[in-house]
Amino acid sequence: MPTVLITGANKGIGLAFAKSFAVDGWKVHACCRQPDKAVDLKSIEGNVALHKLEVTDGLRLAGLAREIIDEPIDILINNAGYFGPRMPFGETDYDDWAYTFLVNSMGPLRMAEHFVEHVARSERRLIVNISSKMGSLSANESGGGYVYRSSKAALNMVSKSLAIDLQEKGISVIAVHPGHVQTDMGGEDAPVSISKSVSGLRKVITKVTEADTGKFFNYDGSIIPW
Ligand SMILES: NC(=O)c1ccc[n+]([C@@H]2O[C@H](COP(=O)([O-])OP(=O)(O)OC[C@H]3O[C@@H](n4cnc5c(N)ncnc54)[C@H](OP(=O)(O)O)[C@@H]3O)[C@@H](O)[C@H]2O)c1
C-alpha cells in the first residue's frame, strides 16, 4: 500500500489531498496542529493516521519521524502554509514576517531533513512542496505581498537545492502552485475550487518522473517560470 504524509491536513487543500489519497487506498499520515478539533479529517474513511504536528517545532518533527521510522513514505506533501500579515509598504510587521518564513520556507526543509530516509526507502520517492505563483519572481507584475511572496520564493529556492541534493538518493522534489483556491487562505471568491485544484495536482504528481525534479508546476500541469 503506497503511503503519503501531508502537513496541514485538517482543512483546505491539505484536507482534500488526505481525502483523495485515502479514497484511492493509500495509507495517509495526516498531520495537523490540533487533531482533537480536526472533525472533517477524522471523518475520512480509509487508512488514515492522525498526527499532531506544528511544522515550526523541530523536536516534534524528530519525534514523529522516530514514531514512524519503519514506514516508507512514498510522497511527502509539504502543504502547511501561512499567508502572514497583509500589510502595505511602510507597515511591515517584521516579527510576523519571520514567523511566516519559519512556516513556509523553513518548515518544508525541516520536514525533508527529518523524513528523507522514510522517502528514500519508498517506491515513489517524491517530495511535493506546495508553493505559490506569488513566489515566482518573473510572475510578479503587481508588487506588494512582501511577506508571503518572499517566503514562497525562498521555498522555491529550497525546492531547487533539495532537488539537486537528493538526486543521489533517487528522490524527486517539485514545487507546485495549486491555483488561487477557495480555501480560508484563498477566500471564497477565488476562481479555483478545492476539488479542481487537488485533482489537477494529483495528475501532476502521478506524471512526475525523475526528469522533472527541480521543476515548478502549475496545478494544470504547465511549468511556471521561477
Ligand atoms: N488557497 C490559495 O489560493 C493558495 C494559493 C497558492 C498557494 N497556496 C498554498 O497552499 C497550501 C494550503 O493552503 P490552503 O489554501 O489550503 O490554506 P488554509 O485553508 O488556510 O490551510 C492552511 C493549512 O496549513 C496549516 N498550518 C498553518 N501554519 C501551520 C504550522 N505552523 N504548522 C502546521 N500547520 C500549519 C493550517 O493549520 P491550522 O488550521 O491549524 O491553522 C491549515 O491546515 C499553503 O501552503 C498555501 O500557501 C494556497
UniProtKB/TrEMBL annotation:
PANTHER family named in the record: SHORT CHAIN DEHYDROGENASE, SHORT-CHAIN DEHYDROGENASE/REDUCTASE SDR
SUPFAM superfamilies xref list: NAD(P)-binding Rossmann-fold domains (SSF51735)
Question: What's this protein's name?
Answer: SDR family oxidoreductase
Annotated Gene3D superfamilies? NAD(P)-binding Rossmann-like Domain (3.40.50.720)
Which species does this protein come from?
A: Kiloniella laminariae
InterPro entries associated with the record: NAD(P)-bd_dom_sf, SDR_enzymes, SDR_fam
Q: Name one Pfam family in it.
A: adh_short
Q: Which family does it belong to?
A: Belongs to the short-chain dehydrogenases/reductases (SDR) family.
Domain of life here? Bacteria
**Classification via CDD domains:** carb_red_sniffer_like_SDR_c
